[in-house]
């Protein structure tokens, strides 16, 4: 009999479907369509498809289903719908949850594209959106008025690594009857406790740690089966946000090594944060895994990303970036390769200066996504880039 698996076992075996060949490594079903045994079988499947019956890859595909079921098993969610990208997942989770005349409350520290959906798209369709400082529970209490349909936040914000108290916000939201939708990228499925903390829909960009080697875009929406296989699937399958079976296969295989990679990257991130703390060129080292972080208790594992603020502002940040050797200047994160990003001029460029200041995205801020290289080499590279600034 199948017992409940731990995350690590689910990551290797969860969701496996075998063909008649009994292949050990999961098969890549690179097919859009499926051949029905009869016209009557086609009709029956369009009325209701069974768990191993597929219609069209925009709706589902065996490789995609393996990825969805494995990720759901790791996360401890009942079901998942895989999406073409993290943004397709964020958009799908929100659009499937709210309608005209309803209210959404969101934390203001958001990834630029998430902000675009909340600030520009939803209001176009008559959805009222209010923003709060996500770390201030009084602001949530005041903003989540009766009739609020959903709350949305990044559990750990990009790039300033504020950690939101998911359980406390969920309690406030649920008391008002609102659905809790979280973007959980920085927590990763490895360290996530989102479902037990009360998140109703958990969204990932699997482009990040799940692929983990910078190859494919992907995303997922996880939650209760009746919601994911209900309004979420209906919205996603008719609006075309499906993941490609090839990308789903890359992600599925990525899940097998996710735990090892994320734990190694987080251990290196901690070592780097400790090595940089107190460096005179840096005004701040932000890492939730350090005891001095204001929300350390909410995310002691810390994750794989830290941010540093150069005392010398943009010039110093650019000079440091340009002197790095191993660290690549790019904007992905969760990758095996360590990546340094200047958010103010790239990922968060479109925010106004006032908004950047409000979110703490100063000109000296550099986000460091820690990869799988030797942490001593990564520290030496950073120290040598800082020396002489
Ligand atoms: C990258 C990212 C996204 C968007 O994911 P894509 O796969 O690039 O579409 C959304 N939210 C957060 C927090 C991210 O880091």
From TrEMBL:
Name listed for the protein in its UniProt record: O-succinylhomoserine sulfhydrylase
Gene3D superfamilies, per database record: Aspartate Aminotransferase, domain 1 (3.90.1150.10), Type I PLP-dependent aspartate aminotransferase-like (Major domain) (3.40.640.10)
Key word Transferase present: yes
GO molecular function: carbon-sulfur lyase activity; pyridoxal phosphate binding; transferase activity, transferring alkyl or aryl (other than methyl) groups
NCBIfam families: O_suc_HS_sulf
Species this protein is from: Rhodovulum marinum
Similarity remark: Belongs to the trans-sulfuration enzymes family. MetZ subfamily.
Function noted in UniProt: Catalyzes the formation of L-homocysteine from O-succinyl-L-homoserine (OSHS) and hydrogen sulfide.
One Pfam entry name: Cys_Met_Meta_PP
One GO term describing the cellular component: cytoplasm
Named cofactor requirement(s): pyridoxal 5'-phosphate
Modified residues (N6-(pyridoxal phosphate)lysine): 208
EC main group: transferase
Keyword Aminoacyl-tRNA synthetase: no
GO terms under biological process: 'de novo' L-methionine biosynthetic process; homocysteine biosynthetic process; transsulfuration
InterPro entries from the UniProt entry: Cys/Met-Metab_PyrdxlP-dep_enz (IPR000277), O-succ-hSer_sulfhydrylase (IPR006234), PyrdxlP-dep_Trfase (IPR015424), PyrdxlP-dep_Trfase_major (IPR015421), PyrdxlP-dep_Trfase_small (IPR015422)
Origin superkingdom: Bacteria
Catalytic activity: O-succinyl-L-homoserine + hydrogen sulfide = L-homocysteine + succinate
EC number(s) on file: 2.5.1.-
Keywords: Amino-acid biosynthesis, Methionine biosynthesis, Pyridoxal phosphate, Transferase
Pathway: Amino-acid biosynthesis; L-methionine biosynthesis via de novo pathway; L-homocysteine from O-succinyl-L-homoserine: step 1/1
Self-association and partners: Homotetramer.
């Amino acid at each position: 009999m199948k017992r409940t698996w731990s995350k690590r076992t689910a990551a290797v075996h969860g969701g496996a479907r075998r063909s008649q060949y009994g292949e050990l490594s999961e098969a890549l079903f690179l097919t859009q369509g499926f051949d029905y045994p009869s016209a009557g079988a086609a009709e029956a499947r369009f009325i209701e498809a069974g768990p191993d019956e597929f219609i069209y890859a925009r709706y589902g595909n065996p490789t995609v289903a393996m990825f969805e079921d494995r990720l759901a098993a790791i996360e401890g969610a009942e079901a998942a719908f895989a999406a073409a990208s993290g943004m397709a997942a964020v958009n799908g989770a929100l659009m499937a949850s709210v309608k005209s005349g309803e209210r959404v409350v969101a934390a203001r520290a958001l990834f630029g594209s998430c902000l675009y959906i909340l600030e520009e798209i939803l209001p176009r369709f008559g959805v009222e959106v209010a923003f709060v400082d996500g770390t201030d529970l009084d602001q949530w209490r005041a903003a989540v008025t009766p009739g609020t349909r959903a709350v949305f936040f990044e559990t750990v914000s990009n790039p300033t690594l504020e950690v939101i108290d998911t359980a406390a916000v969920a309690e406030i939201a649920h008391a008002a009857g609102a659905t809790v939708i979280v973007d959980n990228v920085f927590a990763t499925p490895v360290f996530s406790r989102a479902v037990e903390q009360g998140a109703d829909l958990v969204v990932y960009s699997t482009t990040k740690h799940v692929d983990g080697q910078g190859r494919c875009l992907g995303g997922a929406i996880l939650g209760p089966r009746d919601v994911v296989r209900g309004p979420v699937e209906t919205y996603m399958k008719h609006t075309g946000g499906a993941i490609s079976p090839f990308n789903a296969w890359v992600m599925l295989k990525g899940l097998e090594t996710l735990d090892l990679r994320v734990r190694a990257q987080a251990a290196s991130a901690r070592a780097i944060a400790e090595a940089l703390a107190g460096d005179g060129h840096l005004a701040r080292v932000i890492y939730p895994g350090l005891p001095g972080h204001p929300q350390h208790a909410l995310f002691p594992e810390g994750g794989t990303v830290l941010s540093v603020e150069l005392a010398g502002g943009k010039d110093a940040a650019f000079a440091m970036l340009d002197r790095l050797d191993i660290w690549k200047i790019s904007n992905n994160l969760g990758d095996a390769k360590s990546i340094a990003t200047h958010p103010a001029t790239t990922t968060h460029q479109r925010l106004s200066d006032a908004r950047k200041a409000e979110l703490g995205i100063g000109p000296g801020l550099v986000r460091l996504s820690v990869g799988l290289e030797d942490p001593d080499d990564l520290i030496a590279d950073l120290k040598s880039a800082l020396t002489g600034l």
